């Protein structure tokens, strides 16, 4: 049948090598033959060799099935990294039920060339028809042994290296090895710090501040005794605030509020793989999210010190509203952990005017307002947590929900859809504020409005979108605009139109709110009162490579899968050279993150 029995196997493994090489080139822009041949390829080849040795019959079916699975993995990783700017990990495989967050934009992510990952399937089919049955090859077991030895060496080597950034780690140590190391770390509990402790004084010193006890802050108790409304707006980025398109304000209702609000215009998102649910976790605990794993997926059910619990001690009742399945992002675990008295999801909120994942924000807010009189009678003082989500990617709304008359060049574009969805969300925020004023509650409340994470990012942005963004902004879209979300705090006679450009993070929202309400925290938090402290240091995870940070003067993006490290001036976004201060900030940010993980550990599954 074959003059050389090894020849068909050589051809099969060569096709696999070509596919692995294409994967590394596309995902990591890595062209090192050494890394491909001796780090990345051996693991994938070992799995194929093991499958061929295990199955004595239908070897072509084994080859074809394995190749299909590898192609599917590479295809999925490509789309994921294109959207999230990081590679998916072992942890992400445990959240397949949440895949609709990417699935809704899948067509926007696909490039025709991505299907070349499946080209070898056709080649294998042709070779099967030409060569017939694969012969037995005694030397295959020796090849498998050699591959196993190489794979073992590279994996053990990787295990002994820390994972600061998963994409960079996978580039240096192999994608398959990076997954094995994460599983090993989780199994041996080495993925989280367990002994790092920081006093409040030391924590503020790392950020560049002198610690001041909470009850001595200038704003402490400014809103004491008021109701609290936290409004989390899906995908709202800071760059839309105060901007207009063709003479129309994108956020007219929020803009109108700014004259009687404290507006923080330099607040960075800090979410990890859990996206919107991470934002809920961060703003209700004052702690960072896990990063590589969605925090909600790992919660062990133990009650965590939270905003709802802190306010309960002050006589508040609490309720949270999210118009989706309660199991989405494990909110059936999250909300009890956070201590909400009442939880409302799609089971209670009317399933009408559905857009995207569920009822519209208008339905959500109408329902929350309908529950409010009863809650006021029951509790006296209330904390309402409202999670809006109509402005979720892909941002396509029915015509009756579109308030903007966009210029022709915006029609049908990703940016155009985004602006329409944010304008809709702003309208609902305006209705909430108007109703609170009509009921006489606005002067008795602290209302906090903030974005959960960016909406404009990744490859859904076509070239025309980049052009539209530059025209809309008056300059190229920057990393800072990509990562900052608005934070507006308002209420009758509280503020006098103050814009604060000092650096903040979502982790600072809870400490700032507690200080305004005159409540001293009874548990450590990573964030601080934004009114009190001028300096800040934020460790960045997931959407920026590990080791990145945002600091009051600098924004540092650590080396990633494809790009080298980049240091930017926080104000101008111009490139700067690394210096001793940069190295100090990297160390300090990592120390803060380790402390965060120490605080987080008791609430994460063992």
TrEMBL record:
Pathway: Cell wall biogenesis; lipoteichoic acid biosynthesis. It is a multi-pass membrane protein. InterPro entries: Alkaline_phosphatase_core_sf (IPR017850), LtaS-like (IPR012160), OpgB/LTA_synthase_biosynth (IPR050448), Sulfatase_N (IPR000917). Its EC number is 2.7.8.-. Residues 228-519 form the Sulfatase N-terminal domain. GO terms for molecular function: transferase activity. Keywords: Cell membrane, Membrane, Transferase, Transmembrane, Transmembrane helix. It is an enzyme of class 2 (transferase). The chain crosses the membrane at residues 32-54, 61-81, 101-127, 139-159. Belongs to the LTA synthase family. This is LTA synthase family protein.
């Amino acid at each position: 049948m074959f003059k050389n029995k090894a020849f068909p196997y050589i051809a099969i493994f060569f096709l696999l090598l070509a596919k692995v090489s294409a994967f590394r080139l596309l995902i990591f822009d890595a062209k090192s033959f050494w890394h491909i041949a001796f780090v990345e390829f051996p693991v994938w080849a070992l799995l194929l060799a093991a499958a061929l040795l295990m199955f004595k019959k239908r070897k072509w079916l084994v080859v074809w099935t394995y190749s299909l699975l590898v192609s599917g993995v590479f295809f999925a990783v490509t789309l994921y990294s294109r959207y999230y700017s990081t590679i998916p990990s072992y942890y992400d495989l445990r959240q397949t039920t949440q895949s609709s967050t990417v699935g809704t934009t899948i067509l926007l992510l696909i490039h025709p060339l991505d299907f070349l990952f499946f080209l070898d399937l056709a080649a294998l089919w042709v070779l099967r028809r030409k060569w017939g049955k694969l012969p037995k090859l005694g030397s295959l077991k020796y090849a498998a042994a050699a591959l196993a030895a190489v794979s073992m060496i590279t994996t053990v080597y990787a295990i002994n290296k820390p994972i600061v950034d998963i994409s960079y780690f996978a580039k240096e140590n192999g994608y398959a090895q990076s997954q094995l190391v994460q599983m090993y770390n989780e199994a041996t509990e080495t993925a989280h710090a367990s002994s790092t402790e920081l006093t409040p004084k030391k924590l503020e010193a790392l950020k560049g501040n002198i610690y001041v006890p909470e009850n001595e802050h200038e704003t402490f108790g400014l809103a004491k005794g008021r109701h609290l409304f936290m409004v989390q707006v899906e995908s709202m980025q800071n760059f839309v605030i105060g901007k207009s398109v063709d003479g129309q304000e994108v956020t007219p209702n929020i803009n109108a509020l700014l004259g009687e609000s404290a507006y923080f215009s330099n607040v960075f998102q800090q979410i990890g793989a859990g996206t919107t649910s991470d934002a809920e976790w961060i703003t209700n605990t004052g702690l960072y999210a896990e990063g590589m794993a969605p925090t909600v997926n790992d919660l062990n059910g133990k009650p965590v010190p939270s905003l709802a619990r802190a306010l309960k001690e002050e006589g508040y009742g609490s309720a949270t509203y999210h118009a989706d399945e309660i199991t989405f992002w494990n909110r059936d675990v999250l909300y009890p952990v956070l201590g909400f008295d009442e939880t409302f999801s799609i089971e209670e909120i009317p399933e009408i005017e559905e857009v995207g994942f569920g009822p519209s924000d208008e339905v959500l807010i109408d329902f929350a307002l309908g529950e409010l009189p009863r809650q006021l009678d029951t509790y006296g003082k209330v904390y309402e947590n409202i999670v809006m989500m109509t402005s979720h990617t892909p941002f396509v709304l029915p015509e009756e929900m579109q308030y903007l008359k966009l210029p022709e060049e915006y029609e049908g574009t990703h940016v155009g859809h985004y602006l329409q969805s944010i304008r809709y969300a702003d309208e609902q925020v305006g209705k909430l504020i108007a109703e609170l004023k009509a009921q006489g509650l606005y002067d008795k409340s602290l209302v906090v409005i903030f974005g959960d994470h960016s909406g404009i990012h990744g490859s859904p942005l076509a070239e025309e979108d980049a052009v539209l963004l530059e025209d809309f902004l008056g300059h190229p879209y920057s990393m800072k605009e990509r990562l900052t979300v608005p934070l507006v705090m308002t209420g009758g006679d509280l503020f006098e139109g103050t814009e604060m450009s000092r650096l903040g993070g979502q982790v600072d929202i809870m400490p700032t709110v507690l200080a305004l309400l005159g409540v001293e925290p009874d548990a450590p938090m990573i964030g601080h009162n934004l009114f009190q402290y001028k300096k800040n240091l934020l460790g960045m995870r997931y959407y920026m490579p590990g080791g990145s940070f945002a600091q009051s003067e600098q924004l540092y993006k650590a080396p990633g899968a494809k790009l080298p490290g980049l240091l930017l001036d926080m104000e101008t976004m111009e490139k700067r050279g690394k210096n001793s201060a940069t190295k100090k900030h990297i160390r300090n940010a990592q120390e803060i993150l380790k402390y965060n993980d120490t605080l987080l550990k008791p609430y994460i599954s063992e």
